[in-house]
Amino acid sequence: MRIVGLTLVLLAAGCDSALYGTGVVYVFNGTEKSAEINLDGRTPRDLSLRAGGGQLLVDLVAGPYQVTIKQEGTFPQIVATEFVRERLTLINVGSAACFARADIVGMYSQHKAPVRLAQIYKDGLIFSIPEEISVLPGERVPDNRPRSAEVFFRVDVIPCELAAEQFKVEDHLHRRR
Q1: 41 Cβ partners below 8 Å, 6+ apart?
Q2: Which residues are CB-neighbours of 177 under 8 A, at least 6 positions away?
Q3: What is the pTM for the complete model shown?
Q4: Is residue 92 within 8 Å of residue 55, measured between CB atoms?
């Protein structure tokens, strides 16, 4: 009975994030047209992104969402998805961009390769990344090495023409500190 009462109090107080947890969403528009994006769920958001623009959304309450993407001259794209607690979700407007997840712990050591490519994300509208990401899209790589990190993942937008060649992706991410 106490748990039910506490749950009702938390809901009444608007503490969805305490109940469901939060996630991070990065929306990127790799198309040549501006886009209007609506996220309808526990933390509703409306975004306007220019061509080549991205926006990082932190602390979105986890749960089911409907994503609507509108661009001039095209039919709206409507997709149902789940934003997961403590996970990065990428929304790739028009499926036009490419992303890379790489371990960058070697940038802080002379004994490891500076960047080790883990995965490429392309040809999809929504990607949910289960690994912990230390450097989110659009963030700078920290100057100092994180303590006790065996892996230190970064996700960033990459030119799609590089996606087929691992060494080119790694070099690109290394230069983008």
Answers
A1: 60, 61, 63, 64, 65, 66, 83
A2: 107, 140, 141
A3: 0.87
A4: no
